[in-house]
Amino acid sequence: MSEAANYELPTGIVGLKGPIVKPAPGTLPLRGDLAHIALADSFLAAHYVIPKVRQIGDRAATLKIGMRDDADDGVTLDAGSPVELLDQAGDWAWITCGPEGPSGYVRASTLASDSDA
Question: Does domain 34-110 fall into CATH 1.20.120?
Fold first, then answer.
């Protein structure tokens, strides 16, 4: 069974203090609609998520920049690598290695089952 990642949640009033540079795709776990909870003090998103701890299954996995098999490749993670699940839509899972990234999409079947994690 997966458990929540161990992060200190923002406290007090969360607000942005000025313009920021948008990070490159595949780096920080940040999309326009969703971001890792640890980024709430620094980046604006419609929703913030507390990720679920998971791991890559029994084969290495290459993160994709988009939810398509032909999307650009990001980094490759070794089999068994710990990851954080941020979102799942159909066959695709959006994962990250932590609030500093990298982040990207993999087929949900790439992740070890909850009972294996």
Answer: no
- What is the C-alpha to C-alpha distance for residues 16 and 13, in angstroms, rounded to an integer? 10
**74 in Cβ contact with 66 (< 8 Å):** no
Domains in the chain: boundaries: 34-110
pTM (two decimals):
0.82
Query: Could you tell me which residues come within 8 angstroms of residue 32 by beta carbon, excluding any fewer than 6 positions away?
Result: 45, 46
Q: What angle do CA 49, 38, 36 make, to 5 degrees?
A: 35
pLDDT tens-digit series, residues 64-109: 999 999 999 999 999 999 999 999 999 999 999 999 999 999 999 9
Residue 63 has phi, psi (to 5 degrees) of: -70, 140
